[in-house]
Amino acid sequence: MKSICYGFREGSICKGNGYKPPNLHKWGPGVRDVYALHYIVSGKGYLKTCHTTFPVETGESFIIFPHREVYYYPDPQDPWEYYWIEFNNCAETSRLLSMIDFAPGSPVVQACPQDFRPLFHLVKTAGMEPFERERSDAGLHLLLSYYMEHYPSDKAFLKKDYVLSAREFIESNFWKPSLSVLDVVEFVKIERSYLFRLFKEATGTSISGYLTAFRIQRACELLKTSQLSVKSLAYSVGYQDPMYFSKVFKKVTSSTPSEYKKAFNTGSTE
What we know:
Jelly Rolls, elongated, DNA-binding transcription factor activity, Homeodomain-like_sf, DNA-binding, 20% strand, sequence-specific DNA binding, AraC family transcriptional regulator
């Protein structure tokens, strides 16, 4: 039975992918100029690199690093079956792989409950069209994001920025009248008082204060660029009561929405 192999257009992050049925195929020793990620569906095999032999079996994955000498081969009694994908050695792939617990000296990750086969299938042939190339690269990003989830590196843990996550959540949902501090806490998933302390230290304000300031900042931008009524303006930034919105706006800016818009228009024509 022949292996299935697909090619990718030059310029795509993905360079090729395929499926290898159980057989005695081996490769190396030699070096590649791309990354090559392998996912073992069944059977066993061995990867030799960095002067070490790593046994690999069903459910596990291994990666070949660019410019590292490797030799991999199946177990003769129980040859492996696997999916593979190759991708460029570039800044984007280096960034993604830095968040996964792969390293030249530890290129194998153990089996986990996640079946990665459907994700390998998502990486389609790039073809000639730009949208096809983007889809193939998007498939790779999705695949690696699952490896990041199940095999996070120390760097991935360090990059957990709770304050940034809270701010991004607020800035994406500020327009919802129902948005509350509790929603932010539940999204970030850490203890409430700990998040409050981190947020205050990083921003100089509370979560509720940041939400109010962001809403009013957005309202100011809309007053400068649109002709919305106060009612529409209030609703656009998360306030259902126009009178309450005007009260909050004046407290923050020392002007009513109408006064602010008039002052801006006068200043812009001088």
